[in-house]
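Quarterly update from the structural biology core.
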Amino acid sequence: MKQRSLLMVVLVFIVFFVISFLTNIIGPLVPDIIKSFNLNLTMVALLPFAFFIAYGVMSIPSGILVEKYKEKPVMAAAFVVACLGALLFSLLPSYSVAILSLFLIGTGMATLQVAINPLLRVSGGEEHFAFNSVMAQLIFGGASFLSPLVFSYLVSHLRNESGQAPFIVRTLAKLTPKELPWVSLYWVFAAVTLVMIFLVLLVRFPKVERTEEERAGAWATHKMLFGKKIVILYFLGIFAYVGTEQGVANWISQFLKTYHGFDPQLSGAKTVSWFWGMMTAGCLLGLLLLKLWDSRKILVWFAAAAVVCLSAALFGPGQVALYAFPLMGFCASVMWSIIFSLALNSLDSHHGSFSGILVTGIVGGAVIPLVIGWLGDRIGLRAGMFVLYLTLAYILSIGIWAKPLITNKTIRSKQAG
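Predicted structure, tokenized:
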């Protein structure tokens, strides 16, 4: 009981918020980045690639670093790296610097993701871990909803900046090139990560004894697991899910601008915001549904619904697209947790190393948006986004072929027992 710490739980929730706030803003920025640096779709897709490839590079090494140096110094270092990345682009806004900046920010965020879940379990108590994990996901979704709105606020106010503007707007106007108002967001990122460095250093951390599920195994264990077909199949499942999520979120704003003429800084950013907001709402419904039905059936239903929403977004009129894209977020809400739990429940050992491999599948968020951008330059963005039909089909297939050793407990299964 001595390890329990409400202050640490709050800190972990704040870290979840910051990770999400920094991670899911790239999509609304895409049209501005294209316009500011005169990029084609492939070049702009290299930006989310640089961010999410850091997850593939850092997920397993981060686990090893945390094992060796413990959470506090590793988390502080992660925020230092992210802060340097944000400052670098704020001071030198160019395309090449943006790639390096996003890789540094992604490295920091990937490292934090590895460290905070065990911290939440220990500081909040094992008996409250499930509740706190759901709460953390809701906070994560809330930050994703908020960040595009902050972007819209800053850009719209910096466009018409005057002496009567709020202090933060006047300050950012002095720091940000007039022709690049969206760069102001990176000054905000730098300030937020700087505050987080001091918060992490000030708070006293509990001693974390990692469970087998949280502990990274030796390289030999990872090599052995990659030799198992079921591990590869679920790795591809996480790859397909994050690729779908980011493939939609990163291209919504540009799609709406290209095919329907919507203002990316207002309508585009607002639609991306609602994509993440609906994903958060879907998490709440998912908790209820998982108590009623087998998770595999829910995965099939939600993946099928996502295909319908994608079709409406791609082929419907502009007003339909404004609603269909956020509804895709609602459909995607349960996919990560179901795929991850089905995966872990399909092996009877080495869950820690398997988790590291699954988290590495987040590189799907780097690859799929890049593929969409590359195809978009050649056959058009709408046709490029057809790739999402393939990723959704694979996700749907998991609900058909998955044979977990343990299935999720439902009200009906409890009654039958």
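The domain at 6-403 is CATH 1.20.1250.20 (Growth Hormone; Chain: A;).
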